[in-house]
């Protein structure tokens, strides 16, 4: 049990990183629409974060970017001709759809899948279900490559089960680990799996947001729990507060984060805070652990400050000795209310005694912070040995990837550049070389 480690699989930012503002309901993404991006800087910032955490002794790996542009999408909706003609026509007739085909959003690997470690599942394997992300066109095609990548990395079916995405219909809207967390004594102990949903498809009377879409349904969360063979006594479903969804909290990981026995959450996170916390306390206690709920009041950190700073979209990591570090974006220190709150939190003598901050400005402007960038996978020593080793972050891999980024990535990308056929060729060349670096031949259907 104690030999289980939590691996953080960070999304490697792709060469087409751009600000298209495609995600209605994601305030940061929407507010930077059509500004110039710097793919090279975005990738290097992400790699620096991975390297630093690996150097601190945390288990760190990466998920590779997806192939872009998505020519299959463009051709399926009537853009024909050579690749260059497809791009030119799409840019002329629907630049928004072209931007969808070039979306860099697979970098948000918290949305790649939901993961249940072997300690929680009926068959004792680690289960993954690729998220269908069907709420947004630019993300609805990601699940095919996400499943392909996960199967390439976790190919040993003695230890791992990778499920295809749920049916791509609103009833099963599934956004992956961004609405899921585990709470228990340790990564290797049987734990409570918490699913947070935004709406109920088959109950029209259930509360739902009015302004922005609720992307996760209760029905999807229940389906994932069934696929993973979870114990009903250790599975909790809680509704996200519809009012905070309407304030730009598009996923639960923008308003709450859990790790071990700690739930760090905003008082407005859940539709019924008292009932939700009561249910969690009981379920966690039944595993032999005690839930430590760290509540942040609106008076301390207003919702707007939580959203703009991405305070809760931080990584909560267990250090040697049991205390926890909170990995925050630089924006948290630039927001007066959040900075003041965090100073008090670290000084309080509670479970979180350290802040680790990173400059992730490029990814923050695209609507996600440190926790969006990573998929958590708890693995025993045997399971860790059984997975593909080429994606584990080491100093050697870090330096190879920095050289690769410097060689292949642009440092300036405008919306109009997406029409340039040369960009598509650059992305393909970069990804072909990446499969060699990561030793994952056949990863892409290029």
Could you explain how this protein is built, in words?
It is a single chain. Helix content is 34%, strand content 17%. It has 16 helices and 15 strands. Strands 2-1-15 form a 3-stranded mixed β-sheet. A 3-stranded mixed β-sheet has the order 3-4-5. A 3-stranded mixed β-sheet has the order 6-7-8, with helices on both faces. The radius of gyration is 21 Å and the shape is globular. The active site is at 175, 251, 372 (nucleophile). Catalyzes the hydrolysis of N(2)-succinylarginine into N(2)-succinylornithine, ammonia and CO(2). It holds the Pfam family AstB. Substrate binds at residues 20-29, 111, 138-139, 215, 253, 366.
Mean pLDDT: 94
User: What spatial order of strands do you see in the largest sheet?
Assistant: 2-1-15
Q: Measured on Cα atoms, how large is the radius of gyration?
A: 21 Å
Number of continuous helical runs: 16
What share of residues is helical? 25-40%
Biggest sheet layout:
3 strands, mixed
Defining key terms:
single chain, 446 residues, 3-stranded mixed beta sheet, 15 strands, 34% helix, 17% strand, N-succinylarginine dihydrolase activity, arginine metabolism, N-succinylarginine dihydrolase, hydrolase
Task: Briefly summarize what is shown.
By secondary structure, this protein is α/β, with parallel strands linked by helices.
Helix-strand layout with pairing:
Elements (H helix, E strand, L loop, with lengths): L4 E7 L15 H5 L7 H17 L3 E5 L7 H6 L6 H11 L1 H7 L11 E4 L9 E5 L11 H12 L6 E4 L16 E4 L8 E6 L20 H11 L6 E5 L2 H4 L10 E4 L2 E5 L6 H14 L5 E5 L6 H7 L5 E4 L5 E6 L1 H4 L1 H12 L4 E7 L2 H5 L8 E6 L1 H6 L8 H14 L12 H17 L9
Parallel strand pairs: 1-2, 4-5, 7-8, 10-11, 13-14
Antiparallel strand pairs: 1-15, 3-4, 6-7, 9-10, 12-13
Helix pairs in contact: 2-15, 4-5, 15-16
């Amino acid at each position: 049990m104690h030999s289980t480690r939590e691996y953080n699989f960070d999304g490697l930012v792709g060469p087409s990183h751009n600000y298209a503002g495609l995600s209605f309901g994601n305030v940061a993404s929407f507010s930077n629409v059509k500004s110039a991006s710097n793919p090279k800087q975005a990738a290097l910032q992400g790699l620096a974060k991975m390297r630093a955490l690996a150097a601190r002794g945390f288990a760190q790996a990466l998920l590779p970017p997806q192939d872009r542009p998505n020519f299959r999408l463009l051709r399926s909706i009537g853009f024909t001709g050579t690749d260059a003609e497809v791009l030119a026509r799409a840019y002329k007739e629907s630049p928004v759809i072209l931007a969808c085909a070039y979306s860099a959003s697979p970098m948000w690997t918290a949305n790649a899948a939901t993961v249940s470690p072997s300690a929680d599942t009926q068959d004792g394997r680690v289960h993954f279900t690729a998220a269908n992300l069907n709420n947004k066109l630019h993300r609805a095609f990601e699940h095919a490559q996400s499943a392909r990548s996960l199967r390439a990395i976790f190919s040993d079916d003695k230890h791992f089960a990778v499920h295809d995405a749920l049916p791509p219909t609103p009833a099963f809207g599934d956004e992956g680990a961004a609405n899921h967390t585990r709470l228990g004594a340790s990564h290797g102990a049987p734990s409570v799996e918490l699913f947070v949903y935004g709406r109920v498809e088959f109950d029209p009377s259930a509360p739902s947001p009015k302004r922005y879409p609720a992307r996760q349904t209760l029905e999807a969360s229940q389906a994932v729990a069934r696929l993973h063979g979870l114990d009903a006594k250790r599975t909790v479903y809680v509704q996200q507060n519809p009012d905070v969804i309407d304030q730009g909290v598009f996923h639960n990981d923008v308003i709450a984060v859990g790790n071990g026995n700690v739930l760090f959450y905003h008082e407005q996170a859940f539709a019924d805070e008292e009932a939700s916390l009561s249910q969690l306390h009981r379920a966690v206690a039944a595993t032999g652990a005690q839930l430590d709920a760290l509540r942040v009041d609106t008076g301390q950190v207003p919702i707007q400050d939580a959203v703009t700073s991405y305070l809760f979209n931080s990584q909560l990591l267990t250090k040697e000795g049991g205390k926890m570090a909170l990995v925050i974006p630089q924006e948290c220190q630039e927001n007066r209310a959040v900075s003041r709150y965090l100073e008090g939190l670290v000084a309080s003598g509670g479970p979180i005694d350290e802040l680790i901050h990173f400059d992730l400005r490029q990814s923050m402007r695209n609507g996600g912070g440190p926790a969006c960038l990573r998929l958590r996978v708890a693995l025993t020593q045997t399971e860790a040995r059984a997975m593909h080793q080429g994606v584990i972050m080491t100093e050697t891999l870090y330096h190879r990837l920095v050289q690769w980024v410097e060689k292949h990535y642009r440092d300036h990308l405008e919306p109009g550049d997406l029409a340039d056929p040369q960009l598509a060729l650059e992305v393909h060349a970069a990804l072909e070389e990446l499969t060699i670096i990561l030793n994952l031949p056949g990863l892409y259907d290029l």
